[in-house]
Amino acid sequence: MSFNELFTEVFFLQTEHIRITDPQAQEGTLLRAAEILRSGGLVVFPTETVYGLGGDGTRDEAAKKIYAAKGRPSDNPLIIHIASPADAEKYAYTNPTYEKLASAFMPGPLTVILPKRENIPTSTTGGLDSVAIRCPSHPVAHRLIELCGFPIAAPSANLSGKPSPTCSAHVAQDMDGRVNMIIDGGESEVGLESTIVKIDGDRLTILRPGGITYDALCMVCEHVTVADAVLHQLKDGERPLSPGMKYRHYAPTAPLVLLKGEVDAVLTFLQNEQNQKRCAILCYDEEIAHLHPDKLFPIGARADLAAQAHTLFHALRDADRTDAEIIYAHLPPMDGLGLALYNRMIRAAAHTVLEV
Ligand code: TXA
Ligand code: MG
Predict the structure, then answer these.
(1) Which is nearest to 166 in space by CA: 14, 63, 316?
(2) Which of 116, 179, 248, 316 has the smallest number of Cβ neighbours within 10 A?
(3) 230, 264, 291: which is the final residue of a domain?
């Protein structure tokens, strides 16, 4: 397919929007979605982490269309989504560590990197000889993959450089006219992308923290490390373990600054800033009563990391649509689910942390 054909095919589509509340009762609609995928089209579908931009994971042209629709560099590999943990063996070389992870965390928000088999094209894996595999727990995603009978390759359904979408309205902002169908399956429960681990024998390296935490992985595997790039900026010329680490991720139009300090000191700082600047604030629920409501985006209670994960991308999109000259948020803790929040926020803030 020429670039022009691909361009025309991907950017001027009549996108069909459907809502699925009951995958069993609406099987006919899901069959139609599976048919679109089977004939090489693109379908956005809900998962428990974020929405995915799906194509046939075994087909070269589908991967190319996904990269074009997302505006994503084609060396940043895609995750393939399977209906059952046992299916991984069809597309990758699994091992006992995979079996342990699968029985503990799948279906769910965990992606594993394994050596790939021939049936997964290198266009899907960004030229790598490994493949990322995930078995989502969302009932719509699960049934759609099952009906396809092939793995669905899907990155997050945002335009490259935007936060991952956690509801169909955000998908539509980015993908209308670029995909054949968008399936609305409600709000994503976790709200952050899956935990990605690379499996080497009995060793795990966390390439991206997510809903399955470091502590949870340690309960199942003895050797778990966190890749350097999860917490720190890559040094010039440093080769990342995951191609995604080298790309600049979502950065809001206004600079995002993360605040570190005592509870009262941070609140006083925010109150003063609100008097002086057009600032948007991602605050904790406890702070709502103490701050001016203009451009204020609560992300959950201070101690409720799950609520914060669920709300973060939504709040970032909302804050970015205001006229704020600066966006403030709290520096998340690094334990439990905090590590995933920390990883996303420190990158969105280009590592800008202010101690107050
Ligand atoms: O929760 C999720 O994982 C969502 C939903 C849709 O499943 N998907 C998602 O995909 O976040 P994406 O493409 O936005 O992020 C996938 C990340 C990228 O950073 C990519 O570099 C990395 O996974 N990745 C994929 N295959 C890899 C491989 N073989 N080796 C190392 N990293 C890989
Ligand atoms: Mg993504």
Answers:
(1) 316
(2) 248
(3) 230
89 by Cβ neighbours in 10 Å (0-12 / 13-18 / 19+) ranks as middle
Place of tokens 């709300």: 311
The amino acid present at 15, given as its one-letter code, is T
Structural domains of the chain, count: 2
**Residue of 316, 323, 309, 90 lying closest to 193 (CA atoms):** 309
Best residue among 49, 182, 193, 313 to mutate for probing ligand 1, ranked by most atoms within 8 Å of CB: 193
Inter-residue contact 300 to 233 (CB < 8 Å): no
User: pLDDT tens string for the chain (356 positions)?
Assistant: 666 666 666 678 899 999 999 999 999 999 999 999 999 999 999 999 999 999 999 999 999 999 999 998 888 899 999 999 999 999 999 999 999 999 999 999 999 999 999 999 999 999 999 999 999 999 999 999 999 999 999 999 999 889 999 999 999 999 999 999 999 999 999 999 999 999 999 999 999 999 999 999 999 999 999 999 898 877 777 777 777 776 667 788 899 999 999 999 999 999 999 999 999 999 999 999 999 999 999 999 999 999 999 999 999 999 999 999 999 999 999 999 999 999 999 999 999 999 99
CA–CA separation, 120 vs 60, rounded Å? 9
Q: Which residues on adjacent β-strands are paired with residue 111?
A: 134, 196
Q: Last residue of some domain: 183, 212, 230?
A: 230
Same domain? For 112 and 154 the reply is: yes
- 262: domain CATH number is 3.40.50.11030
- DSSP one-letter code for 351: T
Indicate the SS3 state at residue 269. helix
Q: Which of 99, 337, 339 is nearest to 221 (CA)?
A: 99
Which residue range is the domain that position 349 belongs to?
256-355
State the ligand closest to the CA atom of 126.
1
Q: Are 172 and 178 in contact (CB under 8 A)?
A: no
* Cα distance between residue 208 and residue 169, in whole Å: 26
Which residues surround ligand 1 with Cβ inside 6 Å?
Answer: 47, 49-50, 52, 76-79, 111, 113, 125, 128, 130-132, 134, 154-156, 193-194, 196, 207, 242-244
